[in-house]
Amino acid sequence: MRIPAHSVCTAIRDDIVAGVYERGSRLTEELLARRYGVSRVPVREALRTLEAEGFVVTRRHAGACVAEPTEQEAADLLEMRGLLEPLGASRAAQRRTEAHLKVLRGLVRLGQERAKRGNSDDLRSLGSWFHETLAQSTGSPALTSILAQLRHKIAWMYAVEAPADPVESWTEHGAIVDAVARGDGERARAITALHTERSLAAHRLRFGTGGERVERVRNSQHPVNMPSLRH
What we know:
This is GntR family transcriptional regulator. Residues 2-69 form the HTH gntR-type domain. This protein is mostly helical. It folds into two domains: 5-66, Arc Repressor Mutant, subunit A (Orthogonal Bundle), CATH 1.10.10.10; 71-205, Four Helix Bundle (Hemerythrin (Met), subunit A) (Up-down Bundle). Helices cover 64% and strands 6% of the residues. The chain contains nine helices and four strands. The strands form two sheets. The protein has a two-stranded antiparallel ribbon with strand order 1-2. A two-stranded antiparallel sheet has the order 3-4. A hairpin with a 3-residue loop joins strand 1 (56-59) and strand 2 (63-66). Mean pLDDT is 88; it is low at 214-223 and 225-231.
């Protein structure tokens, strides 16, 4: 059985985001292969992909290491998201399918219900699912991929506080979907831009001035060698 490199890549990326591997730490193929129960071939491919994405760097005499982004690089990510998510919403208004709308409306309905109950854990996952679906609705694999990378990197570099008014936040989600459903790209863009701007205050850098991680997670939650990932 050969575990696909993309599954290994996802597992390593998720563990980097979660803080299992700290910034600057070495990532040796042998140890990674043993940890995830795979051969070194998919690990090598995964590290190349993660280097292209900016999560990994190759250093002379050290090999692959977890990248150490600066505060400016982290700030740039939020700025890029502020530009690209509204663009994505505008494209979604032009290219979404009925299947996309069905999922988006269902997520908004669930989000509004959970917001009224104050279930923040559910809201976080529903929000991620909403924005992933909205990105897929653009009909642009390139834009969808870039937005996904931005979400991963922002989750790595920032802790995000729950919205002060989750009901209002999900009302904005609903307004985005309404604009997308009507094919109103300009309104979808404007509401998404406002929604994204309002979320900025909730972002807190996970790294202190000395580079230490504020929140550490020691245990991997994404084993690769599982039946569900066999192809």
